[in-house]
Design brief:
Blueprint lengths: L1 E5 L2 E5 L3 H22 L24 E4 L5 E3 L2 E3 L4 H9 L6 E6 L5 H13 L4 E4 L8 E2 L5 E2 L2
Parallel strand pairs: 3-6, 6-7
Antiparallel strand pairs: 1-2, 3-4, 4-5, 8-9
Length: 149
């Protein structure tokens, strides 16, 4: 705040120059920082491994299949979603290696897929392996003919 003493008496004016300087500095800081905060994180997804799995599933391996219709198969047996946690807990209770292979139809409902994965994780399994398909290959339930158009 400044004061001027002159012929007309005492006059006080508000000096806003320092406030404008601070405002401009803050504006520049926000203009520089906003694009940096809006950058998305880059995620490197591993490339698909081209590995041929044997057609027969051995008795010690467990493959959980989810179809686009929401059907669940444990190896080749169709099971109910409500029984999944109990069946997996019983099957893996005494096993040393707690790995399950997930074979999920690419056209399956995403929410259903996550619910199945959560159920698998809650049943005490430590490793989840994802079964992938080669380009152009149709989804197949173990022990059955390919499914799809």
């Amino acid at each position: 705040m400044s004061m001027t003493v002159g012929k007309k008496g005492v006059r006080s004016d508000l000096n806003i120059t320092p406030m404008i300087d601070i405002l401009l500095v803050l504006l520049i800081i926000f203009m520089v920082m906003t694009p940096l905060m809006m950058m998305q994180h880059r995620v490197d997804v591993p490339k698909r491994a081209e590995v041929d799995l044997p057609p027969d599933v051995s008795s010690d391996q467990t493959v959980l299949t989810l179809t686009r219709d929401g059907l669940i198969f444990l190896n080749q047996a169709k099971i109910d979603r409500a029984d999944l946690n109990k069946l997996l807990t019983e099957r893996f209770k005494e096993r040393r290696e707690k790995t399950i292979f997930l074979n999920i139809d690419p056209e399956a409902n995403y929410g259903d897929s996550l619910k199945v994965i959560d159920t698998v994780r809650n049943s005490g399994l430590e490793k989840l392996a994802i079964v992938t398909q080669k380009e152009g290959e149709k989804f197949q339930i173990p022990g059955q003919s390919p499914v799809g158009p």
